[in-house]
């Protein structure tokens, strides 16, 4: 649901696991209807891409988890020499949500898999975007612990919060929540502290947000709520740094 009422007068993105079936065309129709109604395209679901869905799914026939690992290794090995020469830091974004959707394999989902990728191409230019929301969809992921296991390999941080309405892994329901820890299911203080503890100095994005104060725009990317998130994250950073100096 792109406009799920949160209860405070705002709306947010909402995920109901049982609603996502194997029929990708039904989801495509939902997104295209949204595109037409609001005259804006949803990232990754642009009309020109939707026109080739059958072709894209056919291209993935026979691609299982290990084949996907092999493809990723081939790609990273091919670009690493250029990355080293130009000092380009690759930062793979995790799969969101962290399980197969429409029968497609997903591999960047948990600590075990991301460490496998780091060891597979053991180079500081081969790094990650640590997205707390994406990794957080996997209820087994300890987000601060994952951050600490990736010292020197996190090149971009997406810091956001989710609120689980039904934490049953089989029927998982969650909505995107304000960044404040008390508003969702994640401890944002511990997430930001873990980034501080490993010496992370890269960019932090206050990722996603509600649509508040009558704003009209891309669902999940409201300007106002993300601005509030940036203020909150900066407050956490200041508190953590001052506490660390005591």
Write a concise keyword list for the protein shown above.
single chain, 246 residues, alpha/beta, four-stranded parallel β-sheet, three-stranded antiparallel β-sheet, 9 strands, globular
Provide structural commentary:
It is globular, with a radius of gyration of 19 Å. The mean pLDDT is 92. By secondary structure, it is of the alpha/beta class. The strands form 3 sheets. A 4-stranded parallel sheet has the order 4-5-6-9. The protein has a 3-stranded antiparallel sheet with strand order 3-8-7. The protein contains 9 helices and 9 strands. The protein starts with a strand and ends with a helix.
Average pLDDT figure: 92
Q: Identify low-pLDDT runs.
A: none
Q: Specify the number of helices.
A: 9
How many strands? 9
Strand composition percent:
5-15%
Which overall shape is indicated by the principal axes computed on the Cα atoms?
globular
What is the radius of gyration computed over CA atoms, rounded to a whole number of angstroms? 19 Å
Let me know the largest β-sheet.
Answer: 4 strands, parallel
Distance between the termini: 46 Å
With strands numbered from the N-terminus, the spatial order across the biggest sheet is 4-5-6-9
- Structural class assignment: alpha/beta
Helix and strand element order: EEEHHHHEHEHHEEEHEH
């Amino acid at each position: 649901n792109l406009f799920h009422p949160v209860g405070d007068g705002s709306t947010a993105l909402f995920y109901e696991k049982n609603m996502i079936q194997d029929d990708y065309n039904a989801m495509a129709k939902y997104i295209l209807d949204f595109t037409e109604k609001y005259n804006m395209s949803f990232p990754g679901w642009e009309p020109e891409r939707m026109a080739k869905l059958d072709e894209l799914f056919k291209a993935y026939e026979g691609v299982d988890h290990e084949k996907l690992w092999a493809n990723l290794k081939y790609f990273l090995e091919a670009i690493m020499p250029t990355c080293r020469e130009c000092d380009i830091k690759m930062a793979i974004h995790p799969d969101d949500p962290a399980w197969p959707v429409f029968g497609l394999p997903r591999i960047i989902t948990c600590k075990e898999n991301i460490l496998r990728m780091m060891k597979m191409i053991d180079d500081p230019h081969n790094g990650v975007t640590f997205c707390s929301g994406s990794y957080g969809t996997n209820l087994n992921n300890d987000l601060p612990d994952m951050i600490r296991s990736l010292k020197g390999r996190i090149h971009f941080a997406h810091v956001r919060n989710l609120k689980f309405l039904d934490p049953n892994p089989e029927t998982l329901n969650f909505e995107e929540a304000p960044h404040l820890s008390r508003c969702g299911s994640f401890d944002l203080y511990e997430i930001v502290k873990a980034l501080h503890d490993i010496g992370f100095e890269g960019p932090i994005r206050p990722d996603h947000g509600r649509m508040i104060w009558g704003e009209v725009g891309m669902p999940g990317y409201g300007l106002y709520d993300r601005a509030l998130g940036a203020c909150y994250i900066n407050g956490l950073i200041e508190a953590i740094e001052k506490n660390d100096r005591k």
